[in-house]
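Q: Hi! First time asking for a complex rather than a single chain. Here are the components, and I think there are two in total. Is that enough to go on?
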Amino acid sequence: MIRVTRKIEFSAAHYYHNPSFSAEENRRVFGKCNNPHGHGHNYVLEVTIAGEPDPATGMVLDLKELKALLQKEIIERMDHRFLNYEVPELTGQIPTCENIAAVIWKLLAPKINKGRLERVRLYESPELFVDCMGDGQ
Amino acid sequence: MKLTLTRRYWFAASHRLHSPRFSEEENWRTYGKCNNPYGHGHNYVLEVTVSGPVDAATGMIANLADLDPFVERHVLEAFDHTYLNEDVPAFRERVPTTENVCLEIYHRLKTFPNARLERVRVEETSLNSFEYFPEIQGS
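A: Yes, that's all I need. Here is the structure of the assembled complex.
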C-alpha cells in the first residue's frame, strides 16, 4: 500500500466562545482565543490517501483531481473566511483545530473515489497540529 | 472519530554517549564523536501527541492552557539548558541517547490528567527523530 499526501494552505479567522459559559469562564478556558474580534492563522492542511497504484497510470489517484477537490471543498469554503460565521458546517461548534479537522474529514471522505482517505492533518501553526483518522486508527 | 492533537516544544541540552559497560575503545567505536568526554549539544524538538474525545463544551481534546504548563513543569524545566547525563537523574543510569530521552519524557508525561498520551517524538537534529508509541512497543 502507498500513501500519497497533498498539502494546501488557507488563511482564516476564528475565535473561541461557548455561549453556555459565563464571560469569565470563556476567558478562563479560552484565554486570548476568546477575543470576540477574532484572530487569524495560516492553516496548513495535509490530506493523505492510501491505496495501490493503478498499473496503467502508476498512480494511487490523479493528483490534479485531488487538487481540484481540495480547491472546491476546502479553499473555496474556508480560505479568507471568519470560520465562526461563514462556514455552515462549523455552525454550533467551536472552530478549534480538532473540530475543523473533523469537518474536513467529513467533507472529503465521501468524495475520494480512488484509494481511501487515511489521514487529515491540520496545522494551526508550526507548533500545533491535529490528526483526524476518521473511525480508523 | 479518531483525533489526536500534537504540540511541538523545544529545549537545548548537552549530552555525552558513553556506556560504563564498554571499554574506552568500545565506547569510541560504538558512539564515535558523540563519545567526546566534554559532551556536545542539540536543539531538541519535542512533539507530544494526545488523544481523547473532543469535549463538546470546549471543542478541544485538551486545552493547551493545561498541556503547556504540564510539559513545561515535567520536562522542559528539567531538560532545558542542562547536561542530560548529570542534571537529569535517569541519565546517570542510562545512556542519554534520544531513544532513552523519548522513553524518559514519555514516563514523565504519561500522568497528564486531561487526555491520553499517545506518542512522544523527539528530533535530535533535523535529520534524526525518534518516536515512542507505548501500545505498540509495550510500556
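A: Chain A has one domain: 2-132. Let me know if you'd like any chain examined more closely.
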